[in-house]
Amino acid sequence: MSFWVYMFPVFGSLQVILLAVLCVIAALVLCGRPRNLPPGPRGLPIVGNAISLLKDPPALVYTDWAKKYGDVFTAYFGPTRTVVLNGYATIHEALVKNAEDFSSRPTAQASFTPDGKTLGIAQEVYGPKLKEHRKFAVMNLRDFGLGKKSLEGKILEESRALCDEISKIDGRPFCISQMMQNAVSNVICSVLFGRRYEYDDMAFKSLLQSMRGILTRDFAVVLAQFFSPVKVLPGVRKPYQQLRKNMKKLEEHIKEKIKEHEETLDSDNIRDFIDAFILESKKRQGHGNSIFTEQEHTVIVYQMFLAGTDTTTNTLHWALLYMILHPDIQEKVQQEIDSVLGPNQKPEMVHRSQMPYTEATLAEVTRISPVTPITIPHGTSNDTVFRGYNIPKDTVVTVNIWSVHHDPKLWPEPDKFDPTRFIDDEGKYVKKIEIIPFSIGRRICPGEQLARMELFLFFTSLLQRFTFKLPEGAPPPFQQRDARTNI
Predict the structure, then answer these.
(1) Binding site members
(2) Any stretches that span the bilayer, and where are they (predicted)?
(3) I need a surface site. Which of 10, 93, 395, 416 has the fewest CB within 10 A?
(4) What's this model's pTM, rounded to 2 decimal places?
(5) Longest Cα–Cα distance in the chain
(6) What is the Cα 209 distance to its own chain's centre?
(7) Which residues make beta-bridge pairs with 80?
(8) Coil, helix or strand for 191?
(9) pLDDT, tens only, 239-278
(10) Any idea where the domains of the chain sit in the sequence?
(11) What is the CATH number of domain 3-486?
């Protein structure tokens, strides 16, 4: 079925007239666009360049367009003008050197919030409110474990639980996806809610099912979040309604936890992030226009829960998949783990510097398969001139991480999985600034340190106890080149 048949399944004379009017309006809008914008591909009336993203993932399309139009180009998705940044030098110049202009978010886009209004940390425009919320979140994440032995203990507790679940399989073929999500989610639950859940807990299962429903959505549903008329189209309406239902369910769970914490709060014994936020809210009562409200609290926890589970889980999936595809690399990692830890000593973060090949392997995983190949859209705070082009205030800015991690000038044979890219002649790990899976600048992921800790401890714990391989006779999940289509 073509895109147009999907979008407009029945065309009567009235619909044709309406479409013609919309085309004229769209043409007038495009004719009135600012001068000296970055160049870009020609789009269609109404939908702009959106159709080009139906065949391939956006990151790949943008990378190809950059070859023709340059590392800074303009695209249109419906009426929304988007400037796309590609390549490390361009992205660093915008997000770091010109942070004052490129650190905001697009206005009136709340796709990562349950109520569609409250923006939280992920989508708040850059300003005093965001700075205060982000500072509070980072400070309290640190207080509840980041960089501390206490959080290492929580991660190792979950890695042991995960390994024990795998041991019960007794060598039979199995899917690790649900187990992995349980383990990683429990880590962020311990930080946010002050507790972990047993894997067979029905409430926990329901919570994770809602989360998967939120994070697993097709392009049409994503488009519906930004372009309201799409919500009523056949084939979009029901999945969009299910998305809203899942978002509401997770929101209600968080509000229930906040209420429980309010009833049991002990100001002298702050248990977790929710307690800390409630205490801060109480301190600000009577100050007027406090930004530490219950709804702000709900949305921030909502965003932290999703981000704290999804990205780490998916990166670990990729890591194990590449170990299956490259058993020689898996064996080298295991040999290094055995040489440092032996069969019984638990891994700790202090061991990371003693395992250069393991660290290089994880770096290569995040390079070749970044789980966020395109960041949450940025927005310009001011009218600005960037690389000779005029970019107006409130322009949507898309940052294409994929274009950096698959730049052949930085990484020869970029589609090849090769940890030795990060190993020098002396066998030491070499950190490279061009690896930016958590983005850079003022909008860098506040949970980066937690994610890196989880990746190392889960990965080493798993490979210390198990060797991962395909079931006997099973075909490879994909050929190496085809991995690019799974982003």
Answers:
(1) 445
(2) 6-32
(3) 10
(4) 0.87
(5) 75
(6) 18
(7) 77
(8) helix
(9) 888 888 999 999 999 999 999 999 999 998 888 999 999 9
(10) 3-486
(11) 1.10.630.10
